[in-house]
């Protein structure tokens, strides 16, 4: 492995961790809902797959449309996180409320999509740089999967400590993260 290849691998590794930190932060809040370990494992795998698929699509589209679509994905992803967070806080106060977004079915799809939008934008810019696509995608997917599992498991532990208030805390984290995505 040459110095250039090693440098590219280290850079991609740091980028993968940075992209996965979104998934960790959001998963920390989502993990405060009651979930089984089987569900946590599935969520991590799905988030990892989305962190492979989204940058791959971005790489295919290339940098030509990066500036136009990149802004829209940030608005959509941030708005979705705000809605999920607000719904979690609302349902903590109203126990009869039907949970709008659960990390199952379409809810899991929207959850995975919202935390992987940034990797789509990164893929747009990487598509023109000639980076090793397979290595980048595997690093992005594995880092986000492990960080998602970590966030969900840590959130599950916190839920055990704080009970009902953990859902308010989790929703607040998602809401704040969504605001940060939009305005940060």
From TrEMBL:
InterPro entries documented for this protein: Mntp/YtaF, Put_MntP
UniProt keyword annotation of S-adenosyl-L-methionine present: no
Signal peptide: none
Segments forming a coiled coil: none
TM ranges: 6-28, 40-65, 71-93, 105-128, 134-155, 162-183
Membrane topology label: Multi-pass membrane protein
Subcellular localization(s) per the UniProt record: Cell membrane
Pfam families recorded: Mntp
Keywords assigned: Cell membrane, Ion transport, Manganese, Membrane, Transmembrane, Transmembrane helix, Transport
Function: Probably functions as a manganese efflux pump.
Family: Belongs to the MntP (TC 9.B.29) family.
The name this protein goes by in its record: Putative manganese efflux pump MntP
Lineage: Bacteria, Bacillati, Bacillota, Bacilli, Bacillales
Gene name, Swiss-Prot/TrEMBL: mntP
């Amino acid at each position: 492995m040459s110095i250039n290849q090693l440098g590219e691998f280290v850079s991609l590794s740091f980028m993968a961790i940075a992209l996965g930190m979104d998934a960790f932060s959001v998963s920390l809040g989502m993990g405060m809902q009651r979930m089984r370990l089987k569900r946590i494992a599935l969520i991590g795998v799905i988030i990892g797959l989305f962190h492979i698929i989204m940058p791959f699509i971005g790489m295919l589209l290339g940098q030509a449309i990066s500036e136009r679509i990149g802004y829209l994905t940030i608005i959509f992803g941030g708005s979705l996180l705000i809605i999920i967070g607000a719904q979690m806080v609302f349902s903590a106060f109203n126990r009869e409320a039907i949970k709008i977004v659960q990390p199952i079915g379409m809810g899991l799809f929207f959850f995975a999509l919202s935390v992987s939008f940034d990797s789509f934008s990164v893929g747009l810019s990487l598509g023109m740089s000639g980076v090793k696509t397979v290595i980048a995608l595997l690093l992005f997917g594995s880092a986000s999967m492990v960080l998602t599992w970590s966030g969900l498991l840590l959130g599950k532990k916190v839920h055990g400590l704080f009970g009902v208030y953990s859902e308010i805390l989790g929703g607040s984290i998602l809401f704040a993260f969504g605001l940060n995505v939009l305005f940060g």
